[in-house]
């Protein structure tokens, strides 16, 4: 039996927005989500619906305007190595080798020397041991993203936050890394929260899929993915769930467009 190393997440009535030159921009509207320890949850929704904003709140990079975010029952008040965030862009430092990029976290916390073995393990986990001394300019897109993943895993996180980490990769590399993400999660059993625009990717990886409404986002639906892994996209059950989620997203897009049209008409008549 695999030991669960993940943390419980509770997002309770979270409201979030930003101040712009044109006024306040509401992003999240009383969003509540609970994630069990070791669970893999995906967030899908229209572009700009607040999915990445929610990840930033979970990472402790921002604070909500209302509501609260808890990890293992404790409020999230700032960043912590136990909550690792992987972005769409690897953001590797070009003057540091692969190994040196992976070592940034331990080095910044003053524990580099005692973390040497952990760094080696992280590189091995993502299949980059032979490229430890390579420079970022020598890496393919997939290898650069593996480096970013190793940089997150070196901290042995209990929560891994994934903000479209495969979004800029070609289809073949993306599919390969989906398999790697799944393998790593099954081995480590951290809690994973993935933001993606790819419904098929969400279905391949997640235990549950949270469908967001357009901004200001609310939780439109939570879909349980009760399919055995590895999941085949040609499986009729997979196809049915994908169509179900796409229908929800299409309905939300249509409602948002209608609301926008009504608002524009009202403004024109004022």
Please give a quick description of this structure.
With 270 residues, the protein is of the alpha/beta class. The chain is built from eight helices and ten strands.
Any idea of the CATH class of the domain at 9-82 and 157-269?
Alpha Beta
Q: Work out the helix count.
A: 8
CA radius of gyration: 20 Å
The third-level CATH topology of the domain at 9-82 and 157-269 is Rossmann fold
Distance between the termini: 65 Å
Strand order of the largest sheet: 6-7-8-3-9-10
Describe what this molecule looks like in 3D.
Helices cover 37% and strands 23% of the residues. It is globular and about 50 Å long. Mean pLDDT is 90; it is low at 261-266. The chain is built from eight helices and ten strands. The protein has helices at 51-59, 98-102, 104-108, 116-125, 141-153, 171-188, 199-205, 236-269, and strands spanning 9-20, 23-35, 40-44, 66-71, 74-75, 83-86, 159-163, 191-195, 208-212, 219-224. The protein is of the alpha/beta class and 270 residues long.
């Amino acid at each position: 039996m695999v030991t669960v190393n993940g943390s419980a997440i509770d997002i309770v009535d979270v409201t979030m927005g930003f101040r712009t030159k044109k006024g306040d921009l509401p992003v999240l509207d009383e969003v509540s989500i609970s994630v069990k320890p070791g669970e893999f949850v995906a967030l899908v929704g229209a572009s700009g619906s607040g999915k990445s904003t929610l990840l930033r709140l979970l990472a402790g990079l921002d604070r909500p305007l209302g509501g609260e975010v808890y990890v293992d029952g404790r409020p999230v008040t700032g960043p912590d190595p136990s909550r690792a965030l992987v972005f769409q862009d690897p953001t590797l430092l070009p003057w540091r080798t692969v190994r040196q990029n992976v070592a940034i976290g331990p080095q910044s916390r003053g524990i580099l020397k005692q973390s040497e073995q952990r760094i080696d393990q992280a590189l091995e986990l993502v299949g980059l041991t032979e490229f430890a001394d390579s420079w970022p300019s020598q890496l393919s897109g997939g290898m650069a993203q593996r480096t970013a993943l190793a940089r997150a895993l070196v901290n042995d996180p209990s929560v891994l936050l994934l903000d479209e980490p495969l979004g800029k990769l070609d289809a073949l590399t993306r599919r390969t890394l989906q398999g790697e993400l799944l393998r790593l999660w099954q081995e480590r059993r951290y809690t994973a929260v993935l933001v993606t625009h790819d419904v098929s990717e969400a279905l391949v990886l997640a235990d549950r899929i949270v469908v967001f409404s357009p901004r200001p986002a609310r939780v439109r639906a939570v879909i349980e993915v009760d399919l055995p892994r590895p999941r085949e996209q040609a499986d009729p059950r997979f196809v049915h769930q994908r169509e179900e989620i796409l229908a929800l997203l299409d309905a939300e897009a249509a409602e948002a467009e209608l609301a926008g049209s009504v608002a524009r008409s009202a403004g024109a008549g004022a």
